[in-house]
Amino acid sequence: MSHNAGSRAVVLGGSIAGLFAARVLADAYDEVRIVDRDVLVGTKGVRRFCPQSQQANGLQAKGVHVMEELFPGITQELVDNGAPIGDLAGTCRWYTQGYRLKQETAGLPALGVLRPVLEWHIRERVQAIPNVVFVEQHDILGLETTADRSRVTGARVQAHGSKTEEIIEADLVVDATGRGSRTPVWLEQLGYAKPEEERKKIDLVYVTQHYKLRPGCDPFGKDTAINQIAHPGLQRGNVFFKVDGGLLELTTYGLLGDHPTTDQTELYQWIKSLGAKDVYEVLRYADPVDAPVAFRFPTTLRRHYQKLDRFPLGLLVTGDAVTCFNPVYAQGMTVAALCAITMREHLHSGATPLPLDYFRDLAKDAIDQAWEMTNTIDLTFPGVKGDRTRQVRMAQKFLKRTQIAATRDGKVAAAYFRVAALMETPESLMRPGLMLRILFKSMFGPSKESLRPHVWQAPPGVEPVFADVTEMPRAA
């Protein structure tokens, strides 16, 4: 694609969504500027203005495929730099409703990579694009528009430590500032309607800590992760997986006021309370390397820009600035990647994209499936308020039967995870042969094998970190 002569796009926000957006914009504009409050270039660790980067962040298989399309070879680059890679259905040990699902390789790459490391690799690729410029340590103040306010012509920013406001002129401004996006406020100030917002209060808190296994211990075996999904009978869960640097990353969470703590002893007690004891047994042979860190996520949020009938030209919104999913389901970064693909489709002519056309396609191609999946599961919890339509209730019943069948049949489990990984639509589970398989296998309830505890024995001579939760190990 040839660049527009002298054209410029400005991306507000330099996190994952902003980086993906900048990648596709660089093919359509002579210059792309990424504006952020943080120091970005060269930063490998947790960023000050990205608090969630201390927590576990997952990229679904669809996200891995899109990332690879945008940055060829990056997946192998991550693996070469120490990120374990497994299969979402084949090497991840999953528990739901208290029983273990069958494992079967499904061709769904599952990368074990720390969020700051993943972001650094993507940012390095973006930084290598000649026409991309990072504008760091700048606050974003607002938008610049034409006199009639029909078109956005740039962004107003201010460098840290400066009292002078700057205007970055642009042919296109993309808001990738996340959940705290000011676009709804800016629209109202410009005389436009704010988008309708859909929220569900889930009152989620999750706590993350990193560990290193004691020499000679490998309770994971061939597996790369041990994950337990919260359910109405136990509103607690976890994701626990091998990550780069030879570490284990554990995020445990609780919904609707049932929250984990950052007190070390109490955190171990919390882990022990989970349905399957695998994680607790692993922790008995894993030394903490840092202190537990908490993160609160009160509500899911979707801004329905596609329902507006007026929107200024020269402005688009992407990633969490449009939709914030329940982070437990690891959809956010993947949807951010899909947003970039949708954006690319609206840049193909070289003309400024039409925002409302973009938002309609964004809803259909990037957001709707993930949002409906999130809603279906969140609304299984009686304490989550929302409209439980007949369609939702039927989807919930079918989901439960699919999960039960998946304890008996690896092909069902693989098909289920292809949907969870956003590689296929939920309708794929309705194919006649697969649907009959689900209905038949679920008639008998969870398999006996799925209810048996996973047993692992420590090698002779290896002492546990603690014999019981009353013995609190100290963080390194």
TrEMBL record:
InterPro entries named in the record: FAD/NAD-bd_sf
Source superkingdom: Bacteria
Protein name according to UniProt: FAD-dependent oxidoreductase
Annotated source species: Actinophytocola glycyrrhizae
